[in-house]
């Protein structure tokens, strides 16, 4: 639900605009409110899992997400729908790091944790790929409201299942409120500034003001974390771990390619260059999803027993870079086979190879008391990478014809993944041990 709801509303935006009377300038907030709240509260959500117990955080996140989905599905005006989407994002920010913390707390480092994280990553990938497909199908067959209301019964079943999770121990200490305020506001303003960069330009006062305020608030956050008397959201000791610091830098770069931009530019290519319908576009993403899941679930955990994680991350990044380089040459004449399916083999195989080793690396060597903070940092790096990547690529492709813009974007993604492979050389060598 968390990853799917990032993109599930995209194909339903025209129907939402018609039904609720959104203006053209306000319509992007249906998607943006979710992204802003999600990115802004991830560090807070991760630390709540440490302080109140990961199992409790999962249940609370599910409840908030489900209630917000119900309110959004029944919304009668633009303001209520945008507020509900922000509520979904807040629930997601608690839920995403808490589910990862449950796994890292339950499974010690080694093959069992690797297997658990491979499944967690595969579910996340499936949700991301399914967003456009599910949104298109539900909107065409039922109504745009169904894309939000469907979360309510799913959430109820998930809450019932979450009651079987270990609740986790409550930890003494209070939440770092100054750190939470500065981090949340700083990250939200960063996401807002990046969202405004594409329509307004980087030199627009609104864009520049939001990014400047974000830089100040994040600097304040860094200062607060070194002097906090409470339990800090991001303990400085975490960033002294080479696997965590370098691994999250690699996560930021890979997120700038896989997290949002790949789906965005592939959607443009299939719908506006190949002239696919929304439902056909969703189906066109199935090879990416199925192949990435197959490699991530069946191949990568076995390779991690005989090869270093660092080697797999580098190999995966370079394989995906070759796929994006191929994708950058696609034209209308390439068709689906040459313009989507062929590159998808390399992109998906590369993504399947690097996702689980990278997730394992950035959560390895972390004390149990900081597991939630590490999970929140990893999710923040991934989401921030997606927002940064989309904003930068949109700006870099402005003024180009659509096919040329997509090609340019995929070429930049290939370069970014080569840079990620080079940065991965700084990671410590690690291999699964029984």
Automatic annotation (TrEMBL):
<feature type="transmembrane region" description="Helical">
    <location>
        <begin position="57"/>
        <end position="80"/>
    </location>
</feature>
<feature type="transmembrane region" description="Helical">
    <location>
        <begin position="384"/>
        <end position="403"/>
    </location>
</feature>
<feature type="domain" description="Major facilitator superfamily (MFS) profile">
    <location>
        <begin position="1"/>
        <end position="432"/>
    </location>
</feature>
<keyword id="KW-1133">Transmembrane helix</keyword>
<keyword id="KW-0472">Membrane</keyword>
<dbReference type="InterPro" id="IPR011701">
    <property type="entry name" value="MFS"/>
</dbReference>
<feature type="transmembrane region" description="Helical">
    <location>
        <begin position="175"/>
        <end position="194"/>
    </location>
</feature>
<feature type="transmembrane region" description="Helical">
    <location>
        <begin position="409"/>
        <end position="429"/>
    </location>
</feature>
<dbReference type="InterPro" id="IPR020846">
    <property type="entry name" value="MFS_dom"/>
</dbReference>
<keyword id="KW-0813">Transport</keyword>
<protein>
    <submittedName>
        <fullName>Putative drug resistance efflux protein</fullName>
    </submittedName>
</protein>
<feature type="transmembrane region" description="Helical">
    <location>
        <begin position="206"/>
        <end position="224"/>
    </location>
</feature>
<feature type="transmembrane region" description="Helical">
    <location>
        <begin position="245"/>
        <end position="266"/>
    </location>
</feature>
<dbReference type="GO" id="GO:0005886">
    <property type="term" value="C:plasma membrane"/>
</dbReference>
<keyword id="KW-1003">Cell membrane</keyword>
<dbReference type="InterPro" id="IPR036259">
    <property type="entry name" value="MFS_trans_sf"/>
</dbReference>
<feature type="transmembrane region" description="Helical">
    <location>
        <begin position="27"/>
        <end position="45"/>
    </location>
</feature>
<dbReference type="GO" id="GO:0022857">
    <property type="term" value="F:transmembrane transporter activity"/>
</dbReference>
<feature type="transmembrane region" description="Helical">
    <location>
        <begin position="86"/>
        <end position="105"/>
    </location>
</feature>
<dbReference type="Pfam" id="PF07690">
    <property type="entry name" value="MFS_1"/>
</dbReference>
<feature type="transmembrane region" description="Helical">
    <location>
        <begin position="278"/>
        <end position="299"/>
    </location>
</feature>
<feature type="transmembrane region" description="Helical">
    <location>
        <begin position="335"/>
        <end position="354"/>
    </location>
</feature>
<feature type="transmembrane region" description="Helical">
    <location>
        <begin position="144"/>
        <end position="163"/>
    </location>
</feature>
<feature type="transmembrane region" description="Helical">
    <location>
        <begin position="117"/>
        <end position="138"/>
    </location>
</feature>
<feature type="transmembrane region" description="Helical">
    <location>
        <begin position="311"/>
        <end position="329"/>
    </location>
</feature>
<keyword id="KW-0812">Transmembrane</keyword>
């Amino acid at each position: 639900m968390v990853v799917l709801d990032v993109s599930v509303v995209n194909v339903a935006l025209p129907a939402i605009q018609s039904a609720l009377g959104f203006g053209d300038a306000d319509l992007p907030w249906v998607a943006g409110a979710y992204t802003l709240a999600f990115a802004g509260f991830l560090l807070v959500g991760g630390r709540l899992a440490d302080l109140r117990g990961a199992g409790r955080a999962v249940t609370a996140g599910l409840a908030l997400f489900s209630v917000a989905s119900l309110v959004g599905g029944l919304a009668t005006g633009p303001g209520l729908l945008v507020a509900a989407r922000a509520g979904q994002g807040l629930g997601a920010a608690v839920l995403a790091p808490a589910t990862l913390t449950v796994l890292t707390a339950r499974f010690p480092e080694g093959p069992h944790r690797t297997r658990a994280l491979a499944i967690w990553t595969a579910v996340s990938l499936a949700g991301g790929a399914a967003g456009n497909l599910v949104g298109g199908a539900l909107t065409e067959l039922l109504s745009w409201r169904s894309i939000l209301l469907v979360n309510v019964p799913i959430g109820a079943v998930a809450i019932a299942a979450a009651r079987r999770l270990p609740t986790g121990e409550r930890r003494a200490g209070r939440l770092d409120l100054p750190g939470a305020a500065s981090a949340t506001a700083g990250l939200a303003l960063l996401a807002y500034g990046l969202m405004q960069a594409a329509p307004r330009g980087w030199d627009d006062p609104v864009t520049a003001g939001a990014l400047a305020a974000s830089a100040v608030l994040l600097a304040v956050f860094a200062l607060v974390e070194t002097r906090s008397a409470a339990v800090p959201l991001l303990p400085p000791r975490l960033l002294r771990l080479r696997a965590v610091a370098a691994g999250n830098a690699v996560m930021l770069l890979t997120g700038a390619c896989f997290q949002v931009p790949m789906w965005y530019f592939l959607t443009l290519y299939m719908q506006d260059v190949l002239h696919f319908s929304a439902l056909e576009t969703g189906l066109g993403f199935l090879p990416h999803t199925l192949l990435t899941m197959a490699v991530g679930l069946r191949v990568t955990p076995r390779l991690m027993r005989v090869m270093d994680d660092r080697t797999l991350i580098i190999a995966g990044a370079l394989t995906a870079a070759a796929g994006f380089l191929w994708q950058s040459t696609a034209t209308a004449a390439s068709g689906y086979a040459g313009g989507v399916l062929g590159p998808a083999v390399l992109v998906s195989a590369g993504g399947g190879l690097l996702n689980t080793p990278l997730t394992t690396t950035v959560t390895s060597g972390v004390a149990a008391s900081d597991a939630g903070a590490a999970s929140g940092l990893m999710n923040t790096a991934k989401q921030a990478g997606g927002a940064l990547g989309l904003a930068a690529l949109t700006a870099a492709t402005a003024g180009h014809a659509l096919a040329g813009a997509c090609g340019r974007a995929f070429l930049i993604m290939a370069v970014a993944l080569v840079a990620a492979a080079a940065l991965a050389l700084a990671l410590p060598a690690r291999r699964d041990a029984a």
